[in-house]
Amino acid sequence: MYREQVSEIVKNKSSKVGAWIGAMRLRTLPLSFSVILIGSSVAYLTTKMDEPAVQGPWLPRWEFSWLIFTLTILTTLCLQILSNLANDYGDALKGADNDGRIGPERAIQSGLISPQSMKKGIIITTIITLISGIWLLLETFEYQFDLAFIVFFLLGVLSIAAAIKYTVGKRAYGYSGFGDIFVFIFFGLLGVIGSYWLQDSTFHWEILLPAIYMGCISVAVLNLNNMRDRVNDEKVGKRTFVVHLGFKRSKNYHYLLFIIAHVCFPLILLVDILIIEGDFKFLIPFAPVAVIHAIHINKVRKVDDPKDFDPELKKIALSAFLFAVLFFATVLIFH
Prior knowledge:
Elements (H helix, E strand, L loop, with lengths): L1 H23 L4 H21 L16 H29 L12 H4 L4 H26 L6 H19 L13 H22 L7 H21 L1 H7 L4 H5 L1 H24 L15 H17 L7 H25 L1
């Protein structure tokens, strides 16, 4: 009897641990990691190739910091996990997570984690994210509390608020069709440009090209998710951009995202971004990913049943990760 009780306790704890891991949605993390890798890759190139100059928080660092890189990755992953937990919590409270939803069962929906426990998890993750973010800024600005520090701190707080407000609260922007815009800004523009600036402390307009590329790919993942859940979202009042567009136009929107992405990144070479100077070896990692995306687009074109979008989510997220890793490896090998 005692052994059976112990076995049941262990089994329940194991189930809850699995539920928390599931709520973190680890398959979404490579995409966040990719955004930082791209921005850091370009920063690595500039810090390796430029001539030394006077250092300072408003001037180029001239030396790539692996500590800042690690803290940027950690903070970004915490933000993504926070967003995923808040998404689980918000959708559960609003009734979007029900039997009509096609994707994997959520933690609160399964009953393994209560809304109260999830709320506590969100608070704890927010605190961890703040600690990691403040440490990152302290290292970046060499423990100087100036205007730049304040600006980046406010951007960090805004990122945390955006991660939570996607589905939580009466005015959750994910329920009003603004999710695509926020994902493009935070997982494209801010992620790439921010990770670049934290290393190099400068801004070149050309950095917008890889930022737009990653923004479009990130939005494409969200669009796939929303196309998969379109019918159920519409029933529960979740007015995503896909719900506004409809099935056919959402596909056309999806194609447009990939067209913009695949125009932007090769343009980096043509405009001699920073110190790449038209070196075509940096297109090496782009080739296999372009093939994956072409196959993906053909698959999306043929999809009639929304559930068939689900396998494509992982494919695109991992393709972005593959590209970012290959690009970073190319940078390290040749420089």
